[in-house]
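Q: Structure tokens for this one, please.
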Amino acid sequence: MAEYESKMNKTKRILVIDDEPTSLDLLRRILEINDYEVLVAGNGMEGVELFHDNPCDLVITDMVMPKKDGLQTILDLRVDSPDLPVIAISGGGIIPKERYLTVAGYLDQVIAIAKPFTIEAIIEAVEKLLQERAVRPEASE
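A: Here is the predicted structure, written as tokens:
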């Protein structure tokens, strides 16, 4: 039983992908204060490469980015990790943020959050997705 508890209590690694340095830094700080290990990437291409070298328990990605948008980033990450939980964030762009987030919300194990977000909304979403992943049978394999 003690072995099981130690596995459950280990630090979770989260990858944050956002092309806005301020948003990237804010999310990193929020997560580190809450005892998560955080990796950061400035665009989707960099994020997918970083994830392949350093698998994470959860990904937070902006939806509107150059080089590779958030939707394509999620789809690419899920090729090798189909059960990967994701938080999709967006402040919008040419298309209103609600449109980007609605599309992301159709994917399984994705929580969509509009920018500007609250600390509470981010932490609540992270905890919810990580808890759901911990209780899924395929997550423990």
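A few notes: Strands lie at 13-17, 37-41, 58-62, 86-90, 110-114. Confidence is low (pLDDT under 50) at residues 1-9.
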